[in-house]
Amino acid sequence: MLKFLFIKSTSRTTDTKLRQCLENASPDCMTFIAKRKKDILRSDHGIVVAGETSAGKSTLINKILGIKIFKGRNMESTSTVCKIRNSEKVVIRTELETGEVEVKYIGDIDVETKEGKKSLRDTLKELTDMTVRKGSSKYKSVDIGIPVSFLKGNTIMVDTPGIGGSGKVSQKVMEYLPNAVSFIFVINVASAGGMQRDRLPEILKSIINLQIDGEMPCFDPRSVIFITNKWDSIKNDPDDSSDEDDVKKTWKKITDSINRNWPSVRKENIFKMNLIDVYREDSSTIEFEKFRKALEKVIKENENIRLTQHFRYLCTLLEDVRTGVRTRQELTNKSKNEQERKSREHQMKINMLRNHCKTRSNDWRQRIESFIEQEANESFKYMSSDIGKERILNPKGWEPIMEVTYVPNKLCDDVRDRINHYINEKVRSPKVVEEFKNIKDEILEFYKEMSSEIEKMERY
Question: What is the spatial distance between Cα 223 and Cα 183, in angstroms, rounded to a whole number?
């Protein structure tokens, strides 16, 4: 972006000075600019649908589009990433693993008719279903253009291969992650308590790592949506004497797991339904309509997100450069003795600020470590006490641990979930939240103080 807008010049000396000015204004900015340039070239705003095999991803997309273009299966079948976008005519393009793009199908078919839907569905099945044709696995992606006004602007809906199947299929999901501006995770509540213990948390962690590395600068973790599906598979035991039925217990367990793996999730972005019953069952239909509104909000918020975010970054960077250039110009107008004096003053000031930052940083680190150790010791004593064991293993609203059916693996998972529940309650307790809020406020205040001191140096 910026690199090609004004850094390129006919003079190598000028080019070097401009780069140096940028680096002085914002260290490592050239690396961030390169990453942002790469990101802004991704013209599509992908709302990625992910989930384990047979969780209901295809059913969800069919419901969203109002057109049954995918047929759900109980086994791994989709071998490629499918992108759905709004288009006046039906257009299907495929991208091979080699990068070559082919237009596979262009037609005037009417997707409102039964024949048109079947024709489109058969074509997609041929291109994406491994159970039909092994050659489908050679496609990196299939781009589907159909009339669907719900997808506005450059927003596309992306169907990904199921998690938990072959490693190659899951790798395609991982490779596509940086292209996303938001995610919808579909969770099968009948499988492993709703969250696959390996794959889904792994993807969530990968997204966080990509953000830390600056590979997803426009992604807002609060916009992620979780669809919990197949609640009809949870049957209440009529002989169960506990106060809470299996559906409520499963819901609590899943929401705890989601919050643990994705702390930024909004409560209103977790939905419970049977996708197969949408438009046939009142409760699932009502929940689906709530989901649609949440999705519309995400699409609207992300419509021009890349342009907005990158433009804001450039404005901030250019302002820093302007300040640096102005300071350099003012410095050249001073005598050599004045420059040297000012340089010494600034260097002394910088050293003082640097030492001050190190001291405060160490203070906060020690304070945090001391607080965590103190809370850990208190928790250990509580967990070791009789009353602690009783309350942790039998939290309010949960089935008593002694009444849980003895199945070794299930019991181990249940005990682990109860301990994790206690830990989550502990780290969200008013005492812990207040302490870290105070530390955060102090750091922000210190940041403002240091920024003010640096700004004074830039002015004089």
Answer: 8
Neighbours of 69 (CB within 10 A): 21
Strand partners, 48: 158, 183
Q: In a 3-state reduction of DSSP, which class is residue 111?
A: coil
Per DSSP, the three-state class of 187 is strand
Give the domains, in start order, of the chain with CATH numbers.
1-9+19-41+306-333 (no CATH), 42-302 (3.40.50.300), 362-459 (no CATH)
State residue 4's pLDDT score: 41
Task: Report DSSP state, residue 277.
Answer: G
Q: What is the mean pLDDT of the chain?
A: 77
Rounded Cα distance, 343 and 336, in Å = 10
Q: Residues, the chain, total? A: 460
Q: Are 262 and 220 in contact (CB under 8 A)?
A: no
CA atoms within 13 Å, Cβ hemisphere of 89:
7
Token readout for 277 is 């019953």
DSSP assignments along 198-228, one per residue: SHHHHHHHHHHHHHHTTS-TT--GGG-EEEE
Q: Would you state the structure tokens that stand for residue 202, as one six-digit string?
A: 């792994």
Q: How many whole angstroms separate alpha carbon 59 and alpha carbon 44?
A: 23
pLDDT of residue 307: 63
What amino acid is encoded at 352 in this protein?
A: M
Distance separating alpha carbons of residues 343 and 330, to the nearest angstrom: 13
**What are the residues whose beta carbons fall under 8 Å from the beta carbon of 121, sequence distance 6 or more?**
68, 69, 70, 71
Residue that is written with structure tokens 């709004």 in the block: 86
Please tell me the pTM assigned to this model.
0.63
- pLDDT bracket for residue 265 (50, 70, 90): confident
- Residue 167 φ/ψ, nearest 5 degrees: -60, -35
Q: Please, are residues 437 and 407 in contact by the beta-carbon 8 Å criterion?
A: no
Is the pLDDT assigned to residue 133 strictly greater than 60?
no
- The rounded distance, in Å, linking the Cα atoms of 110 and 120 is 10
Least confident range of 181-185, 251-255, 312-316: 312-316
